[in-house]
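Need residues for this backbone.
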């Protein structure tokens, strides 16, 4: 049996191998983009599961509709822990942060 791919399709795996490959900087940038997209998607999912519009969530959080819109944008890089906590509290949730090992990564001494 071969190794299980972390990608949903062979096409995505091919694109990653071709454009990122073993380039550490590109891999780090790719991971950062995935993290931004994951946070944005989670905010959107939680908001829609609560049957709230962006405007309604904004009022609960004490911010603007455009701020919620930015937070739900996969390209947005300004997610702050404080804002995520405010959103979580408005949705009767809490923020949980985990640090997980990267496959094949070795800790560096700093």
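Answer:
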């Amino acid at each position: 049996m071969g190794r299980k791919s972390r990608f949903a399709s062979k096409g995505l795996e091919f694109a990653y191998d071709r454009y990122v490959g073993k380039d550490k900087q590109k891999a780090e940038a790719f991971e950062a983009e995935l993290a931004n997209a994951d946070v944005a998607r989670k905010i959107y999912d939680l908001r829609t599961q609560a049957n709230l519009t962006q405007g309604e969530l904004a009022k609960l959080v004490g911010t603007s509709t455009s701020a919620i819109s930015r937070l739900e944008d996969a390209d947005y890089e300004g997610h702050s822990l404080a804002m995520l906590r405010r959103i979580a509290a408005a949705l009767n949730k809490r923020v949980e942060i985990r640090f997980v090992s990267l496959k094949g990564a070795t800790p560096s001494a700093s």
